[in-house]
Amino acid sequence: MNKESSRPDWVPVDAGREFATRVVAGEIVPAPEVHPRRRKSADTPEALAAEIRAGDRGALARGITLIESRAPAHRAAADTLLRLVTPLAGGAMRVGITGVPGAGKSTFIDALGVRLCEKGNRVAVLSVDPSSPVTHGSILGDKTRMETLSRMPNAFIRPSPSGGELGGVARRTRETIVLCEAAGFDIVIVETVGVGQSEVLVRGMVDCFLVLMVAGTGDELQGIKKGILELADILSVNKADGDNKARAEAARREFSRALHYLSPPAGAWQPQVLTCSALSGEGIDTVWATVEAFFKQGRTSGEFAFRRQEQAQTWLDALVMEGLREAYERRSELAPLLAEVEAQVHTGRLPAPEGARRLLNAAGFIP
Length: 367
What we know:
alpha/beta; Single alpha-helices involved in coiled-coils or other helix-helix interfaces; Rossmann fold; 3 domains; seven-stranded parallel β-sheet; three-stranded antiparallel β-sheet
């Protein structure tokens, strides 16, 4: 019997019957019945919360999808889910990682995450991609650039489109952090888009803000102009390997001198400037040891608790502003006035501030 004839020859016999036959030794033998794939019943917030608390990563992914949904029908379920899991959240180390484009953020997180997982930590990475202007989905696919980490059983990587949001974070990053903590992840890393001047919102939702830079860009102090360095708790010059190692060390000294002029109050954390290579792994352990030192000092000084309070207040403020905007957009009776004001602003007959005041006054938001 040749190789081809030794393989079972499956033959569909009836499209209306859910089984097939195979030819064995010249005889037709019924194959085991094949059941159709059953659709999973719709998740309730209570069921999702229970599965997330049990560490089910599939349930965690579905929960994140629910809270990211813009469908009005999903809003109540998302709110219920968050209310159920919030008491279990808050125990993770929240670390934001940002940097100039090309700084190697994804490669760095892949190397760091693998080390943390090997030490027994459970690591969640919220990787925010720029959004396609056509499909509004992620266009970089950061998960594919964290190939080693994505295979670790105690890691969870969630790429999300930024959706055009400012600050280099996705629309529901704060809520996603809560779900990941409820699922038992003790380290949550938020990788931001790296968009430059507007990338500061992430500072309001993490405990430690790590900025990656690279040497040889032509202007080592460009980060100062972007307002990122003054928010950094730790700064590391990446790609400090090979021929670039000396340039990276020179850049580290330059950044250290720049940060000297941004000295924190007495007793507060002094931002550290390091070098590392995500490619070779050199310096990665030192960077994380510095992160741990930052958390240790923050818990001792009370800065950690203060930042958590700030995060909660910032989250509340953002949701209030979002709710006000949505409430305004639902006021269909304002459509004629909106069209009139827009036309006058477009033609220069009405200043934009006055037009905004007229609209907000008509909506009842200002007297």
